What we know:
Chain A is built from two helices and four strands. Chain A is mainly β.
Amino acid sequence: xxxxxxxxxxxxxxxxxxxxxxxxxxxxxxxxxxxxxxxxxxxxxxxxxxxxxxxxxxxxxxxxxxxxxxxxxxxxxxxxxxxxxxxxxxxxxxxxxxxxxxxxxx
Amino acid sequence: xxxxxxxxxxxxxxxxxxxxxxxxxxxxxxxxxxxxxxxxxxxxxxxxxxxxxxxxxxxxxxxxxxxxxxxxxxxxxxxxxxxxxxxxxxxxxxxxxxxxxxxxxxxxxxxxxxxxxxxxxxxxxxxxxxxxxxxxxxxxxxxxxxxxxxxxxxxxxxxxxxxxxxxxxxxxxxxxxxxxxxxxxxxxxxxxxxxxxxxxxxxxxxxxxxxxxxxxxxxxxxxxxxxxxxxxxxxxxxxxxxxxxxxxxxxxxxxxxxxxxxxxxxxxxxxxxxxxxxxxxxxxxxxxxxxxxxxxxxxxxxxxxxxxxxxxxxxxxxxxxxxxxxxxxxxxxxxxxxxxxxxxxxxxxxxxxxxxxxxxxxxxxxxxxxxxxxxxxxxxxxxxxxxxxxxx
Lengths: 106, 392
């Protein structure tokens, strides 16, 4: 997803575009293109899951207000930093305290 | 050949929207605009106009509904006046940025306070920078014609911007005038069905009006600015074609007896006809005075204006609104800035008059011209003055 290029109206993707290339009225003509807008870049903390403690309940996936967590075949939930703003809801809701918020850069 | 009928100008405005075969009208009644939407609701109820008439709970909702309708591809019309326009304010700015070609008649009325239902231009001057195309009508016939032309310009694929047609409250809106009404079939030759470039359609979903992050907001605004400035050539062309079909000619700036004039009055709207009488009277007395009127206010016709002032020594600009604290009316300020750096620069003197329904008489125009002649001779005058204001 994050490799996609050439979205017309989303400046924060890979290219900053000029006004002549904007759609009429700055409309977005590609449904679902907000997935390409990587909103995770203002995060200061990131959640780290301790899989030894994780019971695969999926509450992180359910409570995440964005699309950061997704189930993988092993039953765990994969984290996608492109969208994670570091809000910490997943860490707060985890019934096993398996998720800790870590400062970015640490 | 269309017949001339005696009709209230507000009703003629409704008939124009009807002749343009509008699809959606969303409006809220407010004096002095009420007759326009009242008559439109009758036309819809009587089956004479096949349109959706939305009685909304406020003007904020009226403009929001209009934007939604236009975004869905409907030909959309609304009308309002001062307090209603002020309540719309937030949404008025959204219409051009979404490029929705709505046509709105503003029956100009003074903004409160003190509370006034009467005519001046303070309502529209508060929306001066909203990004809409804005025209001012002088009489009822012009109101009718400007509405028809507004749809054609607004819906042009190179424009796609909303248009405000200004008409003076009461002095036009409530006056019965002889007007040539064009029927829908007569208009259809000039105004083709609306062919939207972009529509809200569940089958092909798009997003109109998304967030504009700092990385894109400037570009989005410049698109709107660039299209508005570029719309002038489409407007002029639309007016020329209207003249070819119906015989009435329209220009961004109208002039009256400016040939050999040393002093020229500058007006907008219906006071222009009183000013014409004043010019005629002064010309009889040998005073070399003429008259100029802005029909097109936004985009401001800079080139036409600079051409029109060639050879003129002084301009007496009449504003019908105060630009508080700016020490000059909005029209005079624009006129001065348009002349800065121009090859020919007449002296400019600003007069504010006709506020909140007070008449501007022939004598008052004469007074402004006399003052202008005196100031021009001296080479200086006050920054601006209110004509007819009592001191005590």
